[in-house]
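User: Hello, can you help with two protein structures?

Assistant: Certainly.
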Amino acid sequence: MTSLRSTAVCTLFFVAMLGSAFAQQVKTDFDHQANFSQYKTYSWQEIKPANSLWDARIKSAVDAQLAARGWSQVESGGDVSIVAIKATQTQRSLQTFYDGFGGGWGWRRFGGGGFGESTTTEQDYKVGTLVLDMYDAKTKQLIWRGSAEDTVSDKAEKNEKNLDKGVAKMFKKFPPQAAKG
């Protein structure tokens, strides 16, 4: 009974760790010298690589966040130019499960021993990454970068929800305030 309980605890721990490994990662950085209060308009430069379904979804998610912060999109000539880069890649996870039998060190006194049986399986999964770059249109200097990385689902609705959530996290503290020194 004890070994069954320890196996269940190990399995739950593994599932929790696996879930945190696949959690969405969002990062942002910005030019601390840039005065974001001067920017009020933006124009889309491009989304690389082009894919009409996701281009519209990315633009919609970003447009909503910027509109909520008082920025306006203009067809061309905005204060800021936005470039989006998206990519997917396949990654592999190795999962090892132990049966919990074998007794460890204590059983060696009684002629038993060993570490029990283990089974390792491979799991492939896709990771999607979105990088948003904002450039000052006049100076052509990068002023802000946000990135979101998450596991790609085989369900389009879930991917859209994750896109919206990731973009919202990117813009949570936007526009950034330069550190007061």
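That covers the first. Now for the second protein you mentioned:
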Amino acid sequence: MTIRAFSSEVETGSRQENASKQDSRDRQTSLSGYDVIVLGAGAAGLMCASVAGQRGRSVLLLEQARNPAEKIRISGGGRCNFTNLRTSPANFLSDNPRFCTSALSGYSQRDFIALVDSYGIAYHEKTRGQLFCDGSSRQIVDMLLAECRKARVQLRLGIRISEVSKGEGGFAVVTDQGEFRGRSLVVATGGPSIPKMGSSGFGYKIAEQFGLKIVPPRAALVPLTFDTALLAQFGDLSGVSVDAVVGCGKTRFDEALLFTHRGLSGPSILQISSYWREGQDLLIDMAPRVDVLDVLKRLRRDHPRQEMATALVDVLPKRLARKIADATAGPERIADFSDKLLAKVAADVKQWRVRPNGTEGYRTAEVTLGGVDTSGLSSKTFEAKSVAGLYFIGEVVDVTGHLGGFNFQWAWSSGYAAGRHL
């Protein structure tokens, strides 16, 4: 049996003796059971385990991957956008929009920043309240592991869970490394986004096993794709980026847009993907701070011999300007464009209506929309209302944040809320 457990003992020449003592303690704890078993050593699971452990609870943290917190490690281009200064309930989607309020106020972005500060981790605000490590995302992982060490949390990696059950004394978790028992069970297994990190819908199965409802999950914060016809029209714009206002229904996001070889991506598209549904159009303004019609009329007056593609370079990247000019099929010179035709070109820039045919799916989705229905959970403790001792936290719950550090803050806040009540 391979055991990866935290130990505060210093490695010395008596390492084998210390390991033997640790194994003995592990076996004794396994036989008597733990106060808390946490499934998933991601952001929420690590936070919950450390908080519960520092309150004197004996905690076992189980993770199927070979390394903990892989999503933290790869996030933010390796620098981890660990929270957002502007976090509020308005930044989250859920069938019950008010569910997140208690947890976010109980452990706010300021609380997590204070923890980061206490470890001397340098960070900066990149844009729109997003905080990133100056160095590596590994600093956040190491900080959380250090918090778990302080709490004497036992961590087992590369473990496979085959069965979860509940009896009078609590919960039993059957794994390929043996059976473990705990008075409380916390499910922090995330959703199926980024499956290469080991993500799956395992937490939903546990919820359904115990009679909790699931809000149908779907990929969120994910690039959108075009059908064959749109790809033929716009596929050669791959790599072109513009600042844009992207709308779907009444929702708008004002951030960068990126054309890809599959369709559209960039922050504005990732944001709107959480709101977009199949069959809906996007309305895109590709020059949100420019009166394009006014610019074109001025250029017609001052530079009448210019081609439309050249004129549009004043407000758009060259390849995109050429694409829109070619699609217009107007006169060769801007001098020969009527007011009506200029207005059409301006509308193509300011009011581009396009219908994606889908998303890139969980493979590239940063998070999962939907999950364990919050109507079955306490908003203060995250305990299942119908199953004493069973908790769900983090991404597995039907609460999804906007892009920009909000989902990590949800992990910290929900993990803390459960941890302090275990």
